[in-house]
Amino acid sequence: MLKKIFSYLLPIKIYETKSAVSKTIKVTWENGELVLDSKNTNYSYGSLQRILRLGLKKIGFEKIAAMNHVLVLGVGGGSVIKTIVDEIKFKGKITGIEIDPEIIEIANTYFKLNNINNLEIVIDDAFEFILKTKDTYDLIIVDVFEDMTMPNFLFQNFFIKRNCFLLNKDGCILFNTMILTDQESIRNENFIAECKSNELKIRTLRTVESHNELIIIEKK
User: Kind of pairing, strands 200-208 and 212-219?
Assistant: First the structure.
C-alpha cells in the first residue's frame, strides 16, 4: 500500500526481467496503479489502456457487450482485456494471442489475467495464428509491438485482408499504431488507402496520447 501511495510522487519499480522476445520488461507502481513497460514504452495499463479504451468507446461499449467472440493480437499485460471484461462487462469468449510466454507469466502474477474465466490465452505469433485459425470474430484488436517498433507484417496487404476475412458481418478491427516519423505517417496513409473497399468503413483517431493513431475498420 505504501508503494502505491508513494507512486504518486515518483514511479516505483517492483519487478524487472529480461525476455528473449521482449527484452527488458518492468512492472512499476505509477500514479497509484501497476503498469507494465518495455525498455522505452508502456506495454499495458497506463497510457496504453487509455488509448485502447478510447478506440473501444468509439466502436461502442454496448455494441461490444453484445458480441460473441473477441480476438486480441498482442496481449501484453492484458489491460485491454480488463477493460472489455470489467468495464464493458463482456460475457462472450476472448482469445488472446501473445508471442512472449514471459509476458503472460507476469500478467498472471501481477495483473491476475488468469482469473478471467472467459479468456483463452494462446502463445503464438500473431501472423501465424491468423493463418491457422478456423474461428471468426466480432472484434479483432491488433496491438502488436516490439518495444517501440511495429513488425512490418502488420501493414502487409495480406495480413489485413486475412483479418477482414475472419470478421463477422458488422464486426470491427481496432488497430493501434504508433507514428514517430514522417515515414511512419506515410506508412499509415498507404495502409488506409489499401484497405478501402465497398464492404469496409474506415475511421482514424489521430495523435492519441501524442504519438498513437488508432485505425478502426468496420465490416458492413
Answer: antiparallel
